[in-house]
Design goal:
Length: about 230
């Protein structure tokens, strides 16, 4: 485990879950953000990398097969790394099932790249980290932009409310960082719950959800010193 972090911060996925969580889970989520796990113990980075590679290189099935073959044939000295490879192979298989329904054909897909600065909301740094930028030309010949965020959890699927809260934060990310690329297309602002096989796009009732997000951040900032 890493050391305690003093500045209030939260990831977009954790904030989406926080907004629909029980009081006990809210306390746990704050504690998880204050005491994050060592990055080497994260379970799905290889799956996220494989899917990002797939999306940015023509959505070619051969890309996924190559990543799965590498994970399946690597000999790991550590048991956790071996289990993680198995989990990532399973996540890539789950992605295969959800991908056809996302309607990503014909889009220009590029990796987000360097970690962007967080959104600052009510004293909390909200780290929004989509995997890829989506660009398309609409029926009128105008450029439109969106993003796609991958969510991995076998035991904590998103519900519609939490998915839409995360998509709202992704839309705010687009406004802050991607405005020069063109107007935002809300239906292309996606969070994909890979194992649940569900995708959520930015909702229309954005002002109300942003108000909920700000109130949640106020609560996180107030509770941060005591959890």
């Amino acid at each position: 485990m890493s050391g305690r972090t003093e500045s209030p911060h939260v990831s977009e996925s954790k904030l989406g879950r926080y907004l629909t969580a029980t009081p006990a889970l809210r306390k746990q989520l704050i504690d998880t953000q204050k005491h994050p796990p060592d990055p080497r113990y994260l379970r799905y980075p290889d799956a996220a990398h494989a899917i990002t590679d797939f999306l940015c290189h023509g959505q070619d099935e051969a890309v996924l097969r190559r990543h799965q073959h590498r994970l399946a044939t690597t000999v790991f000295a550590d048991a956790f790394d071996a289990r993680r490879a198995e989990s990532c192979i399973e996540a890539i298989d789950a992605w295969r099932q959800v991908h056809p329904g996302l309607g990503l054909g014909g889009l220009v897909v590029t990796e987000v790249g360097q970690t962007p600065p967080p959104l600052q909301l009510e004293g909390v740094a909200v780290q929004v980290r989509p995997q890829v930028v989506l660009q398309e030309v609409d029926a009128h010949g105008d450029a439109r932009v969106g993003v796609l965020k991958l969510y991995f959890s076998k035991h904590h699927p998103l519900d519609e409310r939490s998915g839409q809260y995360i998509a709202t934060l992704l839309e705010a990310f687009c406004e802050q960082h991607l405005a020069p690329l063109g107007p935002i297309c809300p239906k292309r602002v996606l969070v994909v719950d890979v194992f649940a096989g569900q995708a959520y796009s930015a909702p229309r009732a954005r002002a109300r959800r942003l108000c909920d997000v700000r109130r949640a951040c106020e609560e996180i900032a107030a509770r941060w010193p005591v959890h």
